[in-house]
Write a structure and sequence with these properties.
The protein is an alpha/beta fold. It folds into 4 domains: 201 residues, Rossmann fold (3-Layer(aba) Sandwich); 148 residues, P-loop containing nucleotide triphosphate hydrolases (Rossmann fold, 3-Layer(aba) Sandwich); 106 residues, Orthogonal Bundle (Arc Repressor Mutant, subunit A); 79 residues, Orthogonal Bundle (DNA polymerase, domain 1), CATH 1.10.150. It is built from 28 helices and 17 strands. The protein has a 7-stranded parallel beta sheet with strand order 3-4-2-5-6-1-7, with helices on both faces. The protein has a 6-stranded parallel beta sheet with strand order 8-13-12-9-11-10, sandwiched between helices. It has a two-stranded antiparallel sheet with strand order 14-17. A hairpin with a 5-residue loop joins strand 15 and strand 16. Helix 14 packs parallel to helix 21 and helix 24 packs across helix 26. The longest helix has 21 residues. The structure holds adenosine-5'-diphosphate and zinc ion. The site of adenosine-5'-diphosphate has 16 residues, from helix 3.
Length: 619
């Protein structure tokens, strides 16, 4: 075994078949392979896994032994380890899915220092039994590195707080000389500070990547008939593609899955109320079959590393930008074009505000949550570049992106200040006159001068503001109310039938000091955004291929499907679509030609090279 550390770039090429490191990967790998501690903040899809896998391989080759990877999701360890095996790396996992004998066998190999990467959940890592095994490895100099994945789980500010993560400080206390790398896609300052403090990473070097995911197109539409809007979006732009549709409630998830199925879309539900084996089966199908759409609550997704998810849709608004960014980040990990699409409306604002108000948390916590919600609402209301705002939230300056709805179709903006003042003064007068508050529907009726039963019942046609906004449509007024609530110039009292209440912020709008800018509500004709029709016959990745190339691509995919089934692994673990598309384009006739293609490392060349050449020549 060579004692010199092999250059990380050589490992990248030899094992993973990639030409170059991405962004800060090279610096991270170098630092950690040399024994430094690191905290890595990188967006979903940025390439975090290689940041610890390559140091693990390099350090194992240099005789340092085993890297322990702490990962919260046992359901995914199997595929992660499978992918490493495919690349020829000695990896294993320890979790409750193994039988006693299997676990013993893994432990034996680990204790001999043979395993390069050992995956385990935090609750296992911190058991006395496991720690005793680590002690033994450590005494013999065979405990190489700790990689703590999804490190934001340590923070209560994150969306995936897992108390077991707090116990991981034992690793540092017990094995101070063993380097640690913690990784997360959550980058806000509070969570970052919490990770540093909770995991005692004060001396770790911080690596912050750009959070931009340029291949993702952000679109936020006004919610009118959300299900019909979703169907139009999928049918016109993502026929046959894999995607995720996030909904707030379990009931909604079930409904959406059924509706999509009834429109011929292969959709499945996923939420915490389903039996564990149904959940697992649905997740497996999403990962393994092609073109499955998962309707899900946020229970679905952490650690889903399927690279070819072509869209993430939100039918309900998430709690904050971190959640939104993490969820949308599950689209397009392979770097190919992908969509993040959200339908957003008045009810979302009301619901999210109410959930915070009614939560049992203390005031300080609620204050932070409200601040985070406000930032997301500002993004949803924005009429300028979405990406500039998203990146700005993560502390990055950028220029308008050209790949979001507002850049591609700059919205018509109208001045809603006058409408806002009319709405607010009506709310004020109604409260004065009747001594109680009313909801949005009734207030809009008064402003528009509609003679309803309720108007008559309360004598509201006698108000001086009755009918002062007859020129506005209900859609316009609804938009104004939504923005007033979103910006805090109006509050909704969830304890009292969602009635509207004036706030401190109302005054400035009433006086005309705060302008209210609104997007003209337009609905784009379906399919106007992208060349239609391309997706079904040929996914984006293969669109540029000739007819012969298409035939080779199809044949390669069929072959890959068989191999994946035989190995009980998702297809992308064998080869990514992009790799198959490159092979199809190049039509290599020799192993040497095949070797240069991105995604084909030495082990895969050996294992599959001859087969691939045969499939290519027969197609
Ligand atoms: P993350 O964990 O940050 O979400 P992954 O580690 O799953 O991201 O990587 C995302 C995808 O990018 C994976 O399919 C991976 O194989 C690929 N990838 C990572 N680094 C590189 C690289 N340097 N060159 C090419 N592909 C890469
Ligand atoms: Zn933009």
């Amino acid at each position: 075994m060579p004692s010199a550390r092999p250059a990380p770039a050589a490992i990248l090429h030899e094992i993973f078949g990639y030409e170059q490191f991405r962004g800060p990967q090279a610096a991270i790998v170098e630092h950690v392979a040399a024994g430094g501690d690191a905290l890595v903040l990188m967006p979903t899809g940025g390439g975090k896994s290689l940041c610890y896998q390559i140091p693990a391989i390099a350090r194992q080759r240099a005789g340092h032994g085993v890297t322990v990877v702490v990962s919260p999701l046992i359901a995914l360890m199997h595929d992660q380890v499978g992918a490493l095996h495919e690349a020829g790396v000695d990896a294993a996992f320890l979790n409750s899915t193994l039988s006693g004998d299997q676990a013993n066998a893994v432990e034996k190999r680990m204790l001999r220092g043979e395993v390069t990467l050992l995956y385990a959940a935090p609750e296992r890592v911190t058991t006395p039994r496991f720690l005793a095994q680590l002690d033994s490895l450590h005494e013999r100099g065979k405990l190489s590195l700790f990689a703590i994945d999804e490190a934001h789980c340590v923070s209560q500010w994150g969306h995936d707080f897992r108390p077991e993560y707090r116990a991981l400080t034992v690793l540092h206390e017990r094995y101070a000389s063993v380097p640690r790398i913690a990784l997360t896609a959550t980058a806000d300052a509070i969570t970052r500070g919490d990770i540093v403090e909770r995991l005692q990473l004060e001396r770790a070097r911080l690596f912050v990547s750009s959070f931009d995911r340029p291949n993702i197109r952000y679109t936020i539409v006004e919610k009118k008939e959300p299900v019909a809007q979703l169907l139009r979006f999928i049918e016109s732009e993502h026929e046959g593609d894999a995607g995720i549709v996030y909904c707030q409630t379990r009931k909604r998830v079930e409904e959406i899955a059924l509706t999509l199925c009834s429109h011929g879309i292969a959709a499945l539900p996923y939420h915490a109320g389903l039996d564990a084996d149904v959940r697992q089966a649905n997740q497996d199908r999403f990962l393994r079959d092609e073109g499955v759409v998962m309707a899900a609550t946020i229970a679905f997704g952490m650690g889903i590393d399927k690279p070819d998810v072509r869209f993430v849709a939100h039918l309900d608004m998430p709690k904050n930008i971190e959640g939104y960014y993490q969820e949308t980040g599950r689209a397009g990990r392979d770097g190919l074009p992908a969509d993040a699409w959200m339908a957003y409306g008045l009810q979302d604002v009301v619901n999210q505000r109410r959930m915070i108000d009614e939560s049992p948390a203390d005031e300080e916590f609620k204050r932070v949550m409200r601040g985070k919600l406000d930032a997301l609402l500002a993004l949803a209301e924005a009429t300028d570049c979405r990406r500039v705002r998203l990146l700005g939230y993560f502390g990055e300056d950028s220029q308008p992106c050209g790949n979001c709805d507002n850049c591609l179709h700059p919205p018509q903006v109208w001045d809603g200040t006058d409408a806002a003042r009319k709405l607010l003064s009506t709310i004020y007068r109604v409260q004065q006159q009747s001594g109680i508050s009313f909801g949005a529907g009734h207030v809009m009726d008064i402003v528009r001068g509609k003679q309803t039963e309720k108007v008559a019942q309360f004598g509201h046609e006698r108000l001086s503001t009755f009918g002062i906004g007859a020129e506005f449509s209900e859609t316009q007024l609804r938009g104004v109310l939504r923005q007033l609530i979103a910006t805090g110039a109006l509050a909704v009292d969830g304890q009292a039938f969602n009635t509207l209440q004036l706030t401190e912020g109302s005054r400035a709008v009433l006086k005309g000091d705060t302008p209210v800018q609104l997007r003209e509500s337009v609905s784009l004709p379906a399919g106007s955004r992208r060349k239609g029709g391309a997706s079904k016959a040929a996914p984006a990745v293969a669109a540029a291929l000739t007819d012969g190339g298409q035939a080779r691509f199809a044949a390669l995919k069929a072959w890959r499907g068989e191999v994946a089934r035989a190995h009980n692994l998702p297809a992308y673990v064998i080869f990514h679509d992009a790799t198959l598309a490159s092979i199809a384009a190049l039509a290599p006739g020799t192993l040497a030609e095949l070797q240069g293609i991105s995604g084909i490392g030495e082990k895969k060349l050996q294992a599959y090279g001859a087969e691939v050449l045969r499939v290519v020549s027969a197609a």
